[in-house]
Amino acid sequence: MRTRKICIHLTLSLVLVTLALSATAAAQLVPYDDFSSTRIDPAKWIGVPASVTVEGDVDRREVSVGLLGQGASRGLHISQTMYSSTGTNTGAGGSGFGLGFAHASKLTAVSFSLTVKDAQPLGCDDNGAAAFVVAGLSATFFNPNPSPDGSTGDITVGLSAIRFSTDSGNNVDISGGIAQCNDRKCINQTNLSFADLGPVPIGSTNTLAVTWDKPNHQFIFQLNANTPVASGYTLSDAYPPGVDLKSLFVFGAVPHCTATPRPYASMDTLFDNVFVNP
User: Fold this and answer.
1) Which pLDDT score, from 0 to 100, does residue 14 have?
2) What is the pLDDT of residue 44?
3) CATH number assigned to the domain comprising residue 249
């Protein structure tokens, strides 16, 4: 009888935890942009740095940011293609492009739909490194230090779809993660936690959401109507980030390679139905 009571207690505890996560993740959000306007609204969106390194910009050949489609299928189209440098088999180049929220400091919860229309990374065996493409939301929320140097120490959260050149099948993997910036431009990061939300087919439209549950020192990630997944942190969240930036983006990375075929990273996406906290 005692064992049965313990099992019932544990079951109820798990149910209560699940309900708490669902309630937090499903906090009432309000429409931000459905991209039905003629042009990208400059009151809602700002430009973001094109790349983390100058070299990444050199590797990029094609980039597109604009509104695409008609009616309910209209959305924010972001795509880019980059190719590897061919003079060495050491190192890699990476570059990203997208739009930032104009009032990032007010955001504690974001939901958006993402369609990965195409994802094609090709790596380099001679380099021993894979190419990858990734698209989604990148956001800084706080810093443990009162006076950071640029982004140094910022806590950044990613919620994205990613595909590596070593992946098989026709899927992209959806995941959420928390990291801390190690330098003022946040080029190097230390990963703090990771939440695997599962694979989705290329070409499918999916809803991704993240909520900062500050009282419980965690972020809650959700894919579609699946059970929310919480990722906690132990650092102080008392201060704002040094660089407050939250953006929808596409990023690609390719290893340097002297062999053929030349490695590349190409991704074509459509963002839509962005919701945020009131």
Assistant:
1) 35
2) 97
3) 2.60.120
Global confidence as pTM: 0.87
DSSP 129: B
Indicate whether 11 belongs to any domain: no
In the chain, how many domains are there? Answer: 1
* Helix, strand, coil distribution of the chain in percent, nearest 5: 15, 50, 35
Instruction: Write out the residue range of the structural domain in which residue 120 sits.
Output: 29-276
Alpha helices in the chain (DSSP H): 2-25, 54-59
pLDDT of residue 50: 54
pLDDT at residue 49, as a whole number = 62
- Say which residues have a Cβ less than 8 Å from residue 138's Cβ, sequence separation at least 6: 156, 157, 158, 160, 245, 246, 247, 249
Q: Which residues of the chain have pLDDT under 50?
A: 1-26, 51-54
- Residue 136 CB: number of other CB atoms within 10 A? 27
Cβ density class 162-196: b for 16+ within 10 Å, e for less: bbbbebeeebbbbbbbbbbbeeeebeebeebbebe
Q: Which of 95, 94, 164, 87 is nearest to 127 (CA)?
A: 87
What pLDDT does residue 27 have? 58
Residue 125 lies in a domain: yes
Q: Which two tokens stand for residue 98?
A: 């997208």
